Amino acid sequence: MRLYLIIILSIITLSCNNKKQELNLLSQDRAYNGPIIDMHIHVDKPEDLPPFSLSLCPPFSNLIEHFDPINEFEDVWNEKFNNPDCENPLVSPKSYQDYQQRIEKQLKQNKVIAVASGAFEDIVKWKLEYPKQIIPSLEFRIGRDSISPEQMKTILIDNDIKVIGEISNQYFGIAPNDPRMFPYYKMAEELDIPVAIHLGSGIPGTPYMGYPKYEAKLSNPLLLEDVLKRYPKLRVSIMHYGEPFIDELITMLYHYPQVYVDIGGIQWAYPKEYFYEYHLKKIVVAGFGKRIMYGSDMIIWPELIEHSINIINDAPFLSYEQKADIFYNNASRFLRLNPRQN
Ligand SMILES: [Zn+2]
Asked: How far is the CA of 202 from the centre of ligand 1 (A)?
């Protein structure tokens, strides 16, 4: 009798364990299919688009595997976009209409609401055209955008703009803790409007291609420490998560619990195995899965949105729930889209 009971109990326990394992496997295998918030797309005006199609074979990091400075880097780089050497390159739109239609298709097909960064007139236009898909975000760079904090405040309020970003001072060699930014941070804190700051890699060879003042060392998230102490109520998203300063990022997420990150294109800028193993997994395992937000960094290739979504969905170590956090819940909480969330 006792032996019989032990056998029954063992069978029940085994089948429970099997079910648990099955459930885990299922949730890990399942692609997330709910709504998505893309924290990082760019919207351009017609004259910003290249006049010819450019073909991209991601990832960026090994697009030029080696380079002899006897050549001009810009020429070598551009050549790759004229003569792609992968099977299915992403091809940039031939016209503005094509660009708009393909972005619209990507947003609708993938159930994406996009925080769209751009110049004031562009984001207002896109918001009017796609009110359900676009959250306008005012881009800003000292030296390029001559606008005072007071003027910015008026623009933000009058046009119901939800985010200040992409703040791209790094392209001009200006650190996130540059005192010239303080009045803008102060205004954002008072208005309770989040800021999204570019900290991380631009395209390979950025200093040789139009941005001689770009400084890679300014990607370091530790540079935000002064800002977060001075403006403790400021909501901050680190765009590109300060890549590749991953340990510095971890300590910032640990010490400053209000800080969020967006993965902004790094998932396709490097081979995904590298992104998974050394960055995404590290942030999740360290305990910060509730502060990672999805972002595609779509610039001129609309299909990068889907490509970027697939990379997150393919991450072998993420459960369905963790994917839902990255794709939607975390950004929704950060942006306060649903006031009932906590
Ligand atoms: Zn950026």
From this structure: 6
